[in-house]
Amino acid sequence: MSLNHVRPWRNIYRRKSRQIMVGDVPVGGDAPIAVQTMTNTLTTDVAATVAQVQAAAEAGADIVRVSVPDEASSKALKDIVRESPVPIVADIHFHYRRGIEAAEAGAACLRINPGNIGDEKRVKEVINAAKDHNCSIRIGVNAGSLEKHLLEKYGEPCPDAMVESGLEHIRILQDNDFHNFKISVKASDVFLSAAAYQGIAEATDAPIHLGITEAGGLVSGTIKSAIGLGNLLWMGIGDTIRVSLSADPVEEVKVGFEILKSLGLRHRGVNIISCPSCARQGFDVIKTVEALEHRLEHIKTPMSLSIIGCVVNGPGEALMTDVGFTGGGAGSGMVYLAGKASHKMSNDQMIDHIVEEVEKKAAELDAVQEAAE
Prior knowledge:
- The protein is 42% helix and 19% strand.
- It is of the alpha/beta class.
- The strands form three sheets. It has an eight-stranded parallel β-sheet. The protein has a five-stranded mixed β-sheet with strand order 11-12-13-14-15. Strands 1-2 form a two-stranded antiparallel ribbon.
- Strand 11, helix 10 and strand 12 (303-308) form a beta-alpha-beta unit.
- Helix 3 packs parallel to helix 4.
- It is elongated.
């Protein structure tokens, strides 16, 4: 990534990993950190699953995972893959045959769990299917389903057990001359996950998929994921991420991008900087931001917008954003463009006006980008 020489305290030095391909998405190396989610529809309901995949892709998902629990799901996967705008990862547990069927159905990646996929012979059959169909593999270690011998050795799920599980499975893949893989070591406990990820990051150059598994609902899961994933990403660890929420997969994608945007690792859409509001506000900040978040969802161009209720911090924040609005008095506020005060606008017209200004600025930025290409 490019370094910020003016503000070196913003620099993140990403761990050096080798690059693999998940379909047409590069993962690892100097590729952008990919955002992933997972469908929660019945896989056999092709129409519902495809609709969810498409909604996630529209929200910015680079990769989508689909559960393949039975043979009927394997058959449906072929249609899902054909209609998906992004690479599909097949989530495989307990039965190795599902992995073989998923590779044959066109999955871009197979997620297999060392703790429940079966013995080494069965894993080898999955590897051969992945080779035959140009399919990558994600080794998905999970604290809740570690191998029996590791639980007996360590007494409980711990970072060393999770790292050892991952390395054992890496050895199997590499012994079979398979190197197109990434790895995750997830736990629902933030401390356990972070320690395990730090350990695996030191032990291998494989791309790393980050996640805090079973993080919880929209609010609690977002906070837990932001703490766990945010700290690891800040350390330079992570090549793909999935925020696991008991919520709509689109919300997972939104949260994932917000985590990456807050660290300057990915830029997509409008980054809204807004105050929490107080008695000084010159307009209803909370309702305004809520409306703007909804009305600006269609903007994919990376840009910034500040919405500040009063002049205490408003002008200063506006200096650093593409478009800004700061509350004033007498039912109006100041519009800022490119960091400079531009014109006043009445509060009752400001939402429509800000949307217009953002759309106009996005078009300008897009034109500059196209000219540069």
